[in-house]
Amino acid sequence: MQVQHRWRQEAAVLLTIATILSSGLTPARGQATAALRADTVKAGPYDMGKMWTFDSPPKEYFAKTYGFKPDDKWFEETRLASLRFADYCSASFVSASGLVMTNHHCARESGTGVARKGEDLNNTGFYAKTLAEERKVPGLFVDQLVKIEDITKRVQDAMGTGSEREQLRGREQAFAAIKQEYTARADWKGLELQTITLYNGGRYALYGFKRYTDVRLVFMPELQLGFFGGDPDNFTYPRYALDCSFFRVYDNGKPLQTKHFFKFNTNGVRENEPIFVIGNPGSTERLKTVAELEFDRDLKIPYILTLIRNRSAALQAYNATAKSDSVLNEIFSFENSYKAYSGQLDGLRDPYLIARKAAFERQFKADALLEQSAKREAQVGGSSATNGVPATSPGSSARGGATTGRADVWADISENVTAMRQLFNDNTYLSPNPLARGELLTFAHLLAQYGEIYLAQPRQAERMRTMLEMPEITSRTLEESYLAAHLAEAQAALGNDDPYVKAALTAENGQLRTPKEAAAYLLRTTKLLDKAFVEDMITRGGAITSSTDPMLVLARAGQKRYEAASQKMQQINARQEVLSSQLGRYVYDVYGNNVPPDATFSLRINDGIVKGYPYNGTVAPVITTFAGLYDRNYSFGDKYPWSLPARWKNPPAELLKQPMCFITTNDIIGGNSGSPMINKNREAVGLVFDGNMESLPGSFIFVPDKNRSISVHAGGMVAAMRYIYKADRLILELTTGK
């Protein structure tokens, strides 16, 4: 999941599979669309995934599925050995001396940040031969989850039954009060507190983290090993990447001594062996209704893909001469997100998957109504056929619960989505977003807004004035490319007759310029790059509303439409959040812990098995070897991104047969990067770093038949350290745990 910590930066990029023809469907899924009857499709038992929480670990499920019943101690030790790496990845302790394992792509920025003058750690990698050589990473921290408290009733009571905004305000006030109260408690003192929303608000928890801030780099391979194959190999399998890094936590200047860690098992993994992934999956949307998914399919994701592709193209053209590493990282991030969102869109366009979501929705709705009926009967002294029968899947009987409100919340959500569709264009294409419209047009929009406020509410304008800072345009070429892309996107979505498009493209002679010509004209003639002009406009305030500066004229053409749409959308979003919370309550009331909540970058444990799958007319091997790494290197003529550093060029024969990566059926998403893969003995056997193309619809549905998680093999990491890096100290620590 290369550069997957960027899942959080929705303003910078915004993820997941291939088309029906290229997704390699099983016969059941591969039938012709015309022959598919939606009413015959049934929901799968794990469509909502397997991202179980440590609030209520799935002991009985593990026992039933794998004949393995871990006790409370097993789950506690597993939780305490697992970490959150900064605020974007996962990690784990892998020795008693505070050694931490995570991905290379999670650690890349932190690791290269400790480079000294003349060093290029992307090209050379890093290994500290002694403790004294381990380098502290400024600002880096890891969090260990040590306390969990259920706060559901308190939060839901605080929300009450008022308007949507009143309910959300009540929730935020409850969060603040709970944090303040627990901060003062002796048993929670010194912990980092976070309120966790589960089931969209069906449950709430307070998590307490022990934060470690003295974190030092120990080992990091070269970029060409950590990101071998680059974007072309991203989300694919077979895979050959040494996507690992190791750090160490220090306490009072000495390596942290901990009893909670995963000892390395380098002896391999067996096919069909159960494997558990512990990490912090970032975000899934499996509880979304079909109406919401269709909105994403028809409008939201196509827009995101167009935005990403055009901005990436602009950056690539710019960087052809700029040669900037920071720009290259941004391009990596865009390309990663484009591939992921493309997969998600293709998954949403798969009629089988949407039919499967619809089947779940029908069953869920029926079970919710049944549960409500049972509750009413119980209240009047009746009996229910479902009393005392716990659900085991969305298709099972409903269990008793406290569902409140009307059962047909789906109709309200559908009505909301219809309103969102009507507002989408104005709220999206006219939004003051630098990524979408460029820095200067976004600034012009804010100036236009300031001018209106200046005339109507001078005091409020004074407060806004402090936020009006001229943007720093580091590249006019790049700024022009972003603006041209925005104008082309607006033209395609809104049409040539739209007033905003006319204002943007119409020349003095009445003819329409191309978006590229219009962007060049706007940047050439605007005075918003003139500090004196801007300061004069701000000082005179109201003059902005009548200025003939072409950038301000264009901003005014879209400003009021956007503000009207935005105001309505805020109301709709508030309503949608409350409705989603109600839906989450239904899920928990009906199915309880048998259906796990959506990912929220909170600690989860998920289960799977080591298993291959058919692909491309053949079979994917469970394990890849270093020999495959060299085959790929030779096949591409040692060209980037399949090139190798000099010290990797002449490997010892023994290395070639060592395992490098392997696959399992585990349920992961962005944020799981850096998660340890452990066996029943709590031994680390691998390190998650990616999923295959078939895993990408996992954002909205988990279909494990070809979904695979990809990990670096524990034996592969040690083999690289032994035969290439000569990291004997680290090998000894990993294999003994000391």
From TrEMBL:
Top-level lineage group: Bacteria
Entry keyword set: Aminopeptidase, Hydrolase, Protease, Serine protease, Signal
Start and end residues of each stretch annotated as Disordered: 377-404
Gene Ontology annotations of biological process type: peptide catabolic process; proteolysis
UniProt EC number: 3.4.14.-
Keyword Hydrolase found: yes
Similarity comment: family membership: Belongs to the peptidase S46 family.
Name listed for the protein in its UniProt record: Dipeptidyl-peptidase
Pfam families (alphabetical): Peptidase_S46 (PF10459)
Record bears the keyword Signal: yes
Record function comment: Catalyzes the removal of dipeptides from the N-terminus of oligopeptides.
